[in-house]
Amino acid sequence: MGMSKRSDKADSAGQAEERADLSVLLLQGEDVIEQVGRAHMSWGLGSADRWDLDQTTGVITWTFPDKTATASAQILGSFAPRAGSWLWAWADQSLLPHMTRDSRSFCDWAEANGHPGLAQPTAFPSP
After folding, report:
1. In what order do the strands lie in the sheet with 122-123?
2. pLDDT, tens digit, for every residue of 8-33?
3. How far is CA 46 from each of CA 31, 52, 67, 81, rounded to the nearest angstrom?
4. 104-126 per-residue burial string, b: 16 or more CB within 10 A, e: under 16
5. In three state form, how does the secondary structure of 21-64 look?
6. Three-class SS of 61-117
7. 59 pairs with which residues across the strands?
């Protein structure tokens, strides 16, 4: 019985650590989103006439009346408003594998760190 209690405590401690790891990851993600938003505003990317993503080269291009801006890109996933669901890029057969590298890395992290719900092809399905 004592071993069981210790095991339960160890499991609880491990689960708490995993939750803390996920919390840190989510906070870091929020920071990145904030930084990208600030850069987006300062570079005027929201005012581009158009944008294009070339999966073959992995380059996103924003076109303005007087200039263009380019950057390397990765696809994390796509959101389907009608279904209210997210499809991870690694599960999207229409995407080239090299464009889904970061998405696959996140899936691998989720599996390795005990977050199987984040390693499913879709997330946030409507009830």
Report:
1. 77-80, 85-88, 122-123
2. 444 555 555 655 677 787 788 788 88
3. 20, 13, 14, 21
4. eebbeebeeeebeebbeeeeeee
5. HHHHHHHHHHHHHHHHHHHHHHHCHHHCCEEEEECCCCEEEEEC
6. EEECCCCEEEEECCCCEEEECCCCEEEEHHHCCCCCHHHHHHHHHHHHHHHHCCCHH
7. 54, 72
Is pTM beyond 0.70 here? no
Contact by Cβ (8 Å): 51, 91: no
DSSP annotation of 118 = G
Tokens 């997210």 correspond to: 86
DSSP summary character for residue 4:
H
CA atoms within a 13 Å half-sphere pointing along the CA-CB vector of 117: 4
Identify any residues that bridge with 70 across adjacent strands, giving them in sequence order: 61
Instruction: Provide the token pair at 123.
Output: 């997330």
